[in-house]
Design a protein that fits this description.
288 residues, mainly alpha, 3 domains, 11 helices, TPR repeat, TPR-like_helical_dom_sf, TPR_rpt
């Protein structure tokens, strides 16, 4: 075959291959541009999972493309920041949003949103410190048995406008539990009778403070006896010092307190109260 024929054939092959390469490159550029456009639209619509997929597709068309890679990393960091905030991992959230903000030649939309989230984080951290301070104060008041004051402090905390936001869920849960504990303690205080500071069974000569109450045997008024009976029936413990004082009173009335256990002394107090008698009267009748 003549040389000119080979030259023509060669030229045709080169043109075909070149044309194919150009066509493929053109299609690749079109696919890349379309994927990037879809990704930007998804970011604008806050459809971040879709945006990640689109930017990954763009990178398949043009591997190592700086723009597509930057957009993809920005999107991933932004999603990571949002997730960390929901889980109250504020330091991690801050790191992710800063990575979005500091990216070069990336999405301005994501940069603006990251700056807004960083500003929100500062507010969250300030609120968290304030809420924790109030909770610690309420907890200390509860431990000091200042239940009413603790309840007021908890109310101040729970009345805060943002306390129910998910960022403060841990503090909110602890505060509601503390409020419940305070309410129970206050209810117990209201239903538990208070024993007299000086038990009537230690003072057989006590007189009623009310002129309308007539004293019973041994100088005890009905009101005093009822109060003592109520205190005993509520299972309030009798201090060791009072038990020792009752022993002396039993001995002075002719009883033998040394042979009696502490429980025997308590039983004697109960019986004397039920009979509306002083310990000395009871001892002179039943413990000789």
């Amino acid at each position: 075959m003549k040389k000119w024929v080979w030259a023509i054939v060669t030229a045709i092959v080169v043109l075909l291959i070149g044309g194919y390469a150009i066509a493929v490159h053109h299609v690749t550029e079109q696919d890349y541009a379309a994927a990037m456009s879809r990704g930007r639209t998804a970011v604008s619509d806050k459809k971040y999972t879709q945006a990640e997929t689109d930017f990954e597709n763009a990178l398949r068309r043009k591997p190592n493309d700086q723009t597509a890679n930057t957009y993809l990393k920005q999107t991933q960091h932004f999603v990571g920041g949002q997730s960390a905030m929901t889980n109250q991992k504020f330091e991690s959230a801050s790191d992710n949003f800063k990575a979005v903000k500091d990216a070069k030649h990336g999405s301005k939309t994501l940069v603006n949103r990251a700056n807004a989230e960083l500003k929100k984080l500062k507010t969250i951290e300030l609120n968290e410190r304030q809420y924790q301070k109030l909770y610690d104060k309420a907890k200390a008041e509860n431990e000091a048995q200042e239940y009413a004051q603790s309840s007021n402090t908890v109310a101040e905390l729970l009345d805060s406008s943002s306390i129910k936001q998910p960022y403060y869920q841990t503090i909110y849960d602890k505060a509601t539990a503390l409020r419940k504990a305070n309410d129970q303690a206050l209810a117990n205080e209201q239903t538990t009778p208070t024993a007299p500071k000086t038990p009537v069974y230690l003072d057989p000569n006590a007189q009623s403070a009310s002129s309308n109450q007539e004293p019973t045997q041994g100088g005890l008024s009905q009101s005093d006896l009822n109060t003592a009976k109520s205190a005993l029936q509520s299972s309030q413990s009798i201090p060791k010092g009072e038990i020792d004082e009752v022993r002396k009173m039993i001995d002075s009335a002719g009883g033998n307190a040394n042979s009696m256990s502490d429980q025997d002394i308590k039983n004697a107090i109960t019986q004397a109260t039920q009979k509306q008698e002083s310990i000395q009267e009871y001892a002179s009748k039943y413990l000789k």
